[in-house]
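Q: Could you fold this chain for me?
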Amino acid sequence: MTELLHAAAARPAGGPDFRLRVPTEEDAYAWHRVFDDPEVMEYHGGRSAELSVYQEFTARQRRHDAERGFCLWTLLDGAGEVVGFTGAQPWPHPWGPVGEVEIGWRLARPAWGRGYATAAARETLERVRAAGVGRVVAMVNARNERSVAVTRRLGMTLLEAAPIPGRDGELAHRYGLEL
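A: Sure. Below is the predicted structure, expressed as structure tokens.
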């Protein structure tokens, strides 16, 4: 399903104009392009992922949407340009909050500081609540001040800090929110 999810109700007055859509096969290329930036990837392994990673990632998100009614949606700005993703998915790793639904976001560098992450995450909270999810978590690198600020704006509570496997001393903060 590639229909656009209009998010006007989630936007406060003066908030960014955006749309969410279930990722298409073409979005793998767009995500690969907009995330090919060391600053964007600083808290996600530090380097750009191969295109094949985004191809599998977008395919997995389409499955999540079909099976659960939510996923990490492609985030489009008011002009219809891909600026990242936001949404929710089952926690995908064998460490951390296994069995929980994680809310997350990643934006292209030019989209930072414009309110997209918070506004689109608020829309995500409404959609996962409508899908019957009662609680979400966010796993955020403890050094990622921008994402920590988004969790605060969403009203999330810090639940714990845990080491990130394979990342020499780096910590992940697990935030939670009852819906």
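A (continued): The first helix runs from residue 25 to 34.
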